[in-house]
Write a structure and sequence with these properties.
- About 25% of the residues lie in helices and about 30% in strands.
- It is α/β, with parallel strands linked by helices and about 250 residues long.
- The chain has a seven-stranded mixed β-sheet. A seven-stranded mixed β-sheet has the order 7-8-9-10-11-12-13, with helices on one face.
- Helix 7 packs parallel to helix 8.
- The radius of gyration is 17 Å and the shape is globular.
- The structure holds zinc ion (2 copies).
- One zinc ion (ZN) binds near residues 53, 113 and 136.
Length: about 250
């Protein structure tokens, strides 16, 4: 299984778990032509797109996905917010209920963000094992067993954000919003420490803020803490996402 990163920022998010036979798309915040290219124009192998919440950087291109006959799964609140309640291919998922999509199992859980009903996902597949996907959340109320790969938001670091407010680069109001809707480097570390990482292969840091983050220091800090393969997501990357490195 490969993880293909097609976008991972406030400009647009999209990830593919793809083994060449079947693929699961996570988020649809980038132009659909880039998705088509990523699967060599074989879009029939995309079994579904799962969407965390309605913000444009995650869901802007949902109609294009539906037009391409890709079923889209999200919370009922997200589906309403996107105006898709009556669309036959827009499916509502329930938190803590396992949904089967091809050979993927998807278990949604609640996250903490300024959106209608945001979800994170625990995704299972025989090839990549159990994958945690958590973005746009200022903390996580759950811990998870048996993780093999992790995609987690690492949006900002408090001292960088504070310095940007001091320097007048960011309004204090935006700082308050960021702190109540996005996952900081510090919280990311706490989340990782709260979970059993013994079987984890990759940790991928996603959705870094342009101005309030430091990719080099985030990568190093999380690698020092976890002793795992840590990658800062950038569009165009492909990462081996098998259950074990072998
Ligand atoms: Zn976002
Ligand atoms: Zn958002």
């Amino acid at each position: 299984m490969e993880l293909k990163i097609l976008g991972s920022s406030s400009k647009g998010n999209c990830y593919l778990l793809d083994n060449g036979k079947e693929a699961l798309m996570i988020e649809c915040g980038i132009a659909f032509k880039n998705v088509q290219k990523a699967v060599d124009f074989d879009i029939t192998r995309i079994k579904a797109c799962i969407i965390s919440h309605e913000h444009g950087d995650h869901a802007k291109h949902v109609k294009r996905c539906l037009d391409a006959m890709i079923p889209c799964y999200m919370s009922d609140g997200t589906r309403n917010a996107l105006g898709l309640a009556s669309h036959p291919l827009a499916h509502a998922m329930t938190e803590n209920v396992l949904h089967k999509i091809g050979n993927f199992g998807v278990l949604p859980f609640d996250t903490e963000h300024d959106a209608a009903q945001p979800f994170g996902f625990l995704i299972a597949h025989p090839e990549c094992g159990t994958v945690l996907f958590a973005t746009d959340t200022y903390y996580l109320q759950y811990t998870f067993d048996g993780l093999n790969n992790i995609l987690i938001e690492c949006n900002y670091r408090q001292d960088i954000l504070d310095a940007n407010v001091e320097a007048g680069l960011i309004p204090a109001k935006l700082r308050a919003r960021t702190m109540k809707s996005h996952c900081s480097f510090e919280t990311c570390k706490e989340i990782l420490q709260a979970n059993d990482l013994s079987e984890v292969h990759n940790i991928v840091l996603i959705h870094l803020s342009d101005g309030n983050s430091n990719a080099v220091e985030f990568q190093q800090g999380i690698a020092d803490l976890t002793h795992k393969i840590v990658t800062v997501a950038r569009s165009g990357m492909t990462i081996n996402f098998n259950k074990s490195p072998f």
